[in-house]
TrEMBL record:
Keyword annotations of the record: Membrane, Transmembrane, Transmembrane helix
Chain intervals with Basic residues compositional bias: 200-210
Segments of skewed composition (Basic and acidic residues): 225-235
Protein name: SigF-like NTF2-like domain-containing protein
Record-annotated membrane-spanning stretches: 167-190
Keyword check for Protein transport: no
InterPro entries named in the record: NTF2_SigF (IPR057514)
Organism: Candolleomyces eurysporus
Amino acid sequence: MENPAKDIHKIFNLIDCAHSPELQKAAIEKYFLPDAGLKYPVFQVERGPGGRDRILKLYQYAGFQLSTHDPLSESRVRWLHIVSPKTKGVITHVVYDKSSHALLLDVTQHLDLIYLPFWKSTSRMLTRLSLEKHGGLQYIAFQEDFMHPDDLAGLLLPPMKTVLQTLLWMVAIFLTVLAMVAQFLGIFAVRKRREDDIKGRRRERRRKNKNGTDTMVSDGTMQEENGKGKEDGQKEGVVARN
């Protein structure tokens, strides 16, 4: 990649949204380093020799046909395109940190599941690409995909997303009540007197700073008035002598 922030849109479409195994294979071999690694919430490929080949297998052997002319490969159809013939990933935001050679992608994935035709699957994912420069071009050395638990659960079973969101909401309420009980018992509780003292000291500092500024302004005004008075007196003396 010459311009990662710009080129990543085309690369993402070739790898994640491609409907041709040949195009996908060519893109992975072109933009991933031979020892690249991949980490997904449910599987990972450690970075090392042959890493790119293992990544390619995850994308294709678990997915695309390797060749349309290979009769044995007809059963190797990408699982995501089986359950969702219309798969679309959209990059909504791109952040490129040139100093650390990192590319961050905010991705929204849309699936039309054949077994739930009236229930759209939409999941959000944050992808971090660690890049390395070779021969003046940037290549993907490691890919990390991060997903919230509800997005991961709702990827292939959208009703689970609502269930998990409700569960997370209930856990948040439980932790809030637990924190209130702990503070009532004096554990990491905010002391009212100490809080008032802190606020009082802040008000005092602001008052002193304000008074100091006013004093400086007043002194400056008095000095200007005294200077003008002296100049007027000198002018009057000159006129009287004349």
